[in-house]
Structures are given as structure tokens and as C-alpha cells.
Write a structure and sequence with these properties.
With about 450 residues, this protein is an alpha+beta fold. The chain has two domains: about 180 residues, Chloramphenicol Acetyltransferase (2-Layer Sandwich), CATH 3.30.559; about 240 residues, Chloramphenicol Acetyltransferase (2-Layer Sandwich), CATH 3.30.559.10. The protein has eleven helices and 18 strands. Strands 1, 2, 4, 7, 8, 9 and 16 form a seven-stranded mixed β-sheet that branches. A six-stranded mixed β-sheet has the order 10-18-17-15-11-14. A hairpin with a 5-residue loop joins strand 8 and strand 9. Helix 1 crosses helix 4, helix 6 crosses helix 10 and helix 10 crosses helix 11. The longest helix is centred in the middle third of the chain and has 17 residues. It is globular and about 60 Å long. The C terminus is likely disordered. InterPro entries: CAT-like_dom_sf, Plant_acyltransferase. Belongs to the plant acyltransferase family. Pfam families: Transferase (PF02458). One of its GO terms (molecular function) is transferase activity. This is Methanol O-anthraniloyltransferase.
């Protein structure tokens, strides 16, 4: 199994623009007031790894996928455009048809040699997703960058970088699903829906919730929460045993809570303990909650814009650390329960009234769950990926991903980014809460199972 430090050579082809395969409208289309908030003005990376398929023998994945991209862009033509910014920082897509970036590459390594390094935080992202000069900007740059890297075993890596203002993870998967259907020659199952006005501010705008997730950051003297010069980027695997142990900490009537809820409660508590905050400091957890399927929101099938909010659970650090796990769980459930039409409209109104601010990061931890997004359903002809999801964490934000480990267990992999000294304390707290036996007897075992 390859160490994350082992290097291998990658030969990159020249980056090219893939344009829609047919004519598309030339028009300006406004993003929603949820889309263009400051916190989504970044490039989000995901990666998928596919094994060799005898059915696709003799076919080059880059050629197959590039064909599917060009055809799918006829339907998703705004993705081939460029962003402009108008007064009040309003973003608009110029549907110019200029295209998306595509890179073809060959790597002298096999999936077997890569081993667990395919998981977040993937240490090979610089090789598997070329940082094309001049493409990183939010305005006036390609909205998507894809790289297909063929491996010596016949499998390949498919890496993607998306401008997060144009779509969320569900929207990206919806687009890639169509790419796969076209590549395989099957019927298209879902056509795109724009309708960004669904998530626009009201007229006149009015903030009706206390949106602590957008509170202005106040100065704090605690160095542990501010010193991010030396960061540790680690991943933790939570299989059935770890989740069952976490549930055993709860009263019987709460044990049917979702995996997302119990895992988020655990991570929030362990992370807060590791940070060593003053007991009276206020800490928060902001779960990304989708608007799709929520009563009153009526998000149509095919909508590929950002359709979520992240209501914030709040607690004093001391109370969170000293209380049983059910305390954190209750706060998360309460925060999630706020999500609905009024809450989303209040967020959109806040964006217009307050200049589209970034979410709060100080003493806040944001968590996104991609386990049900559908990355494992993206099939370009080579079947399901053996891993599909986020490439890693970003400061203050973790993304949950699906994975089956070497023991055949299905579970959740969570990348986390913390200062090195904080990460050591976090691991200690995590071992304590996920272990069925005293820490001294189980520390090494849990470390090996959890850290990938």
C-alpha cells in the first residue's frame, strides 16, 4: 500500500476548453442570492477513482468523458459561461459558450499502489488536478475544471474543481450523471432546471431569524483557535462499531437519531475540547442542510443551484464539553429544525441587506454531508467509483463521504483540518468517546481504524 509521501510521475496534456456540442442561447442569467454569498466564492474540489472495466476495453476514459461533457453542456449551457459582478456584488452568468477546462493525463501508478491515499485528504491532488494558470478566479474564469488521469492498471482518476457559486454538490452530481448517461448511450434521466429566483430575497427584504452563522467575528485571545500556520490534515473512518458505540452514549429514546446527527455531535464536542477554549466562550456548529424536499420550498427536480443553508447550533464551550453527548445532539436537532421556507428567505434577505457576507468561522465548525449526494452513482461506463466525494477538508469545514474499508465495512470518512497540537488532543478525545474499553487498552487499535 503506497505511503502518502510516495511520489509518481504524471504526464499532463495541454489544458483545453470543452465547449457545448451544439448552439446555445447567448444571454445573462442571474445567480440566486444564496448562490453569490461570499462564503461560496471559492473553488471546491472532488475526486473519483474508477477500476478497469472489461466492457470498456479499448476505450479511453478521457475521450469518452470529453464527448459526454460537450453534449451535456448543450443542456447545462450556463456552466460554459463566465461570471460577472454587478452593483451590490450581484453575480450574473454571461452564457458565452466559452467552455470548461479539461486536462488529460497519464500517471505511472496503479490503484493498488495508491491504496488508501485515494481517500481524503488525497495527497496527490496537485498531480491529479492540474492548477491551470489563470483559471482560479471567481470572475471571468471557467466555472469547471476536469482532469482524467489514466492509471497503469487500466483504471483512472476523475478530478473536478467547481466554482461553488454556480452549483452545489448535488448540482454537480446531476450534471455528471447526465455526462455519464450520454457517454453510455442511455436515456437522459433528468434535465436541468435554472429557476434561481426561487432563492432570491424578498421585496422588501426582511431578516426574520437570528442568523448567528453570519455574526461578525469578535477578537479572541485564544491562540489555539487562530494559529493555522502549521496544519494537520487527517481523515477518520467511522464504521458500524464506532457509530454503535456513539449511540450507546445516548438515552434509549434518542438512539434512532441519524448517523449525521450523532457523528456531528461527537465531532463538535471532541473538537471543542481539543481547542482548549475558555468555559464561557460561545462555540457553534453549522450543519449544511439541504432545501430540497423541505416543506414549503418546492425545489423542482433538476435544480442545480446552491439549495442549502447552515443554521447554527450554539453553546458555551464549558457546557458542551462537560455535558453528555445528548446535549450536543439536542442542539443540532434544534438548529436543523429551523430549516424551511422562512429561514431560507431570511438568509437571502440578509445577503442583500448586509453585502453578501461570509459565514462565521471564529469558534464555528461547519459540516457538510455528501454521503447521500450520489457520487457513487456517477457511471461513465466503468461502473461505480471505488471512492467518490470531497478531496479533503478546508479550514473550519469538514465534508462527510462514503467509503468501504479494507475490512468490508461501509462507513463514513471525515477529513479534518486542525493545527498539529490541536489534532493530537482531538484524536485523544475521539478515541475516548468511540472506544468500548479504557483508552489505555484501545488507543492504538482505534487510531489505526480511524486514521486513514
Amino acid at each position: 500500500m503506497m505511503s502518502s509521501r510516495t511520489s509518481f510521475s504524471v504526464v499532463h496534456g495541454e489544458p483545453e476548453l470543452v465547449v457545448p456540442a451544439g448552439p446555445t442561447p447567448r444571454e445573462l442569467k442571474n445567480l440566486s442570492d444564496i448562490d453569490d454569498q461570499e462564503g461560496l466564492r471559492f473553488q471546491h474540489q472532488v475526486i473519483m477513482f474508477y477500476q478497469k472495466s472489461h466492457v470498456m476495453e479499448g476505450k479511453h476514459p478521457a475521450t469518452v468523458i470529453k464527448y459526454g461533457l460537450a453534449e451535456a453542456l448543450v443542456h447545462y449551457y450556463p456552466l460554459a459561461g463566465r461570471l460577472r459582478e454587478w452593483p451590490n456584488r450581484k453575480l450574473t452568468v454571461d452564457c458565452s459558450g466559452e467552455g470548461i477546462l479539461f486536462v488529460e493525463a497519464e500517471a505511472h501508478v496503479s490503484l493498488k499502489e495508491l491504496g488508501n491515499s485515494i481517500l481524503p485528504p488525497c495527497p496527490h491532488m496537485k498531480e491529479l488536478l492540474l492548477d491551470v494558470p489563470g483559471s482560479q478566479g471567481i470572475l471571468g474564469c471557467p466555472l469547471l475544471l476536469f482532469q482524467v488521469t489514466r492509471l497503469t492498471c487500466g483504471g483512472f482518476a476523475f478530478a473536478a474543481r467547481m466554482n461553488h457559486t454556480i452549483c452545489d454538490s448535488l448540482g454537480l452530481v446531476q450534471f455528471l450523471t447526465m455526462v455519464g448517461e450520454i457517454a453510455r448511450g442511455v436515456s437522459i434521466s433528468q434535465f436541468p432546471v435554472w429557476q434561481r429566483e426561487l432563492f432570491n430575497a424578498r421585496d422588501p427584504p426582511r431578516i426574520t431569524y437570528a442568523h448567528h452563522e453570519y455574526d461578525e467575528t469578535k477578537h479572541c485571545s485564544n491562540k489555539d483557535t487562530m494559529d493555522f500556520d502549521q496544519m494537520a490534515h487527517e481523515s477518520f473512518f467511522f464504521g458500524p462499531k464506532e457509530i454503535a458505540t456513539l449511540r450507546s452514549h445516548l438515552p434509549q429514546h434518542l438512539r434512532k437519531c441519524s448517523t449525521f446527527e450523532i457523528l456531528s455531535a461527537c465531532l463538535w464536542k471532541c473538537r471543542t475540547k481539543a481547542l482548549g477554549l475558555e468555559p464561557n466562550e460561545i462555540v457553534g456548529l453549522s450543519p449544511f442542510i439541504t432545501a430540497r424536499g423541505k416543506v414549503g420550498l418546492h425545489v423542482p427536480n433538476g435544480y442545480y443551484g446552491n439549495a442549502f443553508a447552515f443554521p447554527m447550533a450554539l453553546s458555551k464551550a464549558g457546557l458542551l464539553c462537560q455535558s453528555p453527548l445528548e446535549y450536543a445532539l439536542g442542539l443540532i436537532k434544534k438548529a436543523k429544525a429551523q430549516m424551511g421556507l422562512e429561514y431560507v428567505k431570511s438568509v437571502a434577505d440578509l445577503m442583500v441587506l448586509k453585502g453578501r457576507p461570509k459565514y462565521k468561522t471564529k469558534e464555528n465548525y461547519l459540516i457538510g454531508d455528501t454521503t447521500h449526494v450520489g457520487f457513487y452513482d456517477v457511471d461513465f461506463g466503468w461502473g461505480s467509483p471505488i471512492y467518490g466525494g470531497p478531496a479533503g477538508a478546508i479550514p473550519f469545514v469538514s465534508f462527510y463521504g462514503r467509503f468501504r474499508n479494507n475490512e468490508g465495512e461501509d462507513g463514513v470518512v471525515v477529513p479534518i483540518l486542525l493545527p498539529h497540537h490541536v489534532m493530537k488532543r482531538f484524536l485523544f478525545e475521539l478515541v475516548k468517546i468511540t472506544s468500548e474499553v479504557p483508552v489505555g487498552l484501545s488507543y492504538n487499535k482505534i487510531t489505526n481504524r480511524s486514521m486513514l
